[in-house]
Amino acid sequence: MRIFDGTMYRNASEDEISTMQSAQSTIESYERIRPLTESDVTRLLIAQQINTLEVDDTTALRMLEFYPEWVDGQDYAAGFKVQWRGKLWRCLQDHTSQDGWEPDSAPSLWSKVLIPDETVVPEWEQPDSTNPYSAGDKVNHNGKTWVSDIDNNVWEPGVYGWTEQSD
Questions:
Q1: Which terminal CB of the chain, N or C, has fewer other CB atoms within 10 Å?
Q2: Distance of CA 66 to the CA centre of its chain
Q3: Which stretches of the chain are DSSP H helices?
Q4: Structural element, H or E, at residue 138
Q5: Cβ atoms within 10 Å of 13's Cβ, excluding its own
Q6: Alpha-carbon separation of residue 103 from 54, 66, 76, 155 (angstroms)
Q7: What is the pLDDT of residue 118?
Q8: DSSP 139-156
Q9: In Å, how far are 56, 131, 138, 140 from 165, measured between CA atoms?
Q10: Who contacts 100 (Cβ-Cβ below 8 Å, separation ≥6)?
């Protein structure tokens, strides 16, 4: 292991590595037994219950920070929403997560919710069949603003299913 001593990088000694591992173990032990704050409990309860709410994607995106983070080894049901790398994702089919099946790597299991804020027109992203644009969705593409004319729109603006919005 290399460490920075203030002026240069050097190899850590066995004693330094042992000290760091001991400190990490102490921190982890304390975290398992420390009393939870009201804020901690509130966040846990919200994360456990948020997927029981029936809300549209726009509202769900406004509550992004309350959705649980995707984790490996977790059972997910179709429709369950998670955070992954700052984005909201919807589970498409029941499964148990595993390494390599992260939401941005498993399009057969997850779809990203594409319109994060109705007041901001996002850059167009190529959707797949699991997360198409809806009629009325707006995007920026090649320096122009486009409005989707159809539901389930997976076409590139300017090709089909979009109307250029004039300023």
A1: C
A2: 11
A3: 14-33, 38-49, 57-62
A4: strand 138-141
A5: 11
A6: 21, 17, 12, 22
A7: 67
A8: EEETTEEEEE-SSSB-SP
A9: 25, 22, 9, 10
A10: 106
Pairwise CA distance, residues 51 & 69, whole Å: 12
Residue with the two structure tokens 């589970």: 91
Place of tokens 């984790």: 71
The CA dihedral of 67, 70, 76, 78, to the nearest 10 degrees, is: 60
Residue 140 burial (10 A CB sphere; 0-12, 13-18, 19+)? middle
d(CA 80, CA 50): 9
Quick one: which of 129, 131, 145 has its CA closest to 163? 145
Which residues of the chain fall below pLDDT 50?
none
* Residues 61 and 85: beta-carbon distance below 8 Å: no
CA separation, residue 120 to residues 83, 139, 153 (Å) = 20, 9, 19
Q: So what's the pLDDT on residue 5?
A: 81
